[in-house]
Amino acid sequence: MSIAVSAIVQPSRWLSSLVGAMSSIVLAGGVAIAAGLVVDLSPLLRWSLASSIVFLSFFGFYHGTRSQKPIQLSISGTGQIWLTEVDSFRPCREQEWPHVDLYGEAFVLMSDSTLFAYALLLRLQAESGRIITVPVLPDSVSRDTFRALSAACRWIATQNKPSGPERK
Prior knowledge:
The chain is of the alpha+beta class. Helices cover 39% and strands 21% of the residues.
């Protein structure tokens, strides 16, 4: 059985919803502070604190959603990982599908990646030292692709673990 798998990972709607909910809760806290419902502060301090919380709420939502782009994640039979951004702005033509740039980058699965049954948080490190995190949730790919990615990442993780303490 080969672990080779290639998938286009779409941005997760669940993750976007959670980021939006978290930002809304923080925004509501900022509004409650501005209205004086939470703490009794001087008006200047209250408005300063409330405006910074509202700013952080919008910044968190923007930062959490702006970098969401489809990517192609390819894992070879030997466990090498290639990551390529999908160009979603080009028109769809059969010979150009899946609209990927030809030059991807090789990555290594880091040991602090999180591999749950329903979520993969892949921490990948390039040869240049750049580290990225790729969230793969069940709504990002098809069910079969998610299973294949999960199995491949688990296999790579077991291959990267040291077998035991080194003896001198």
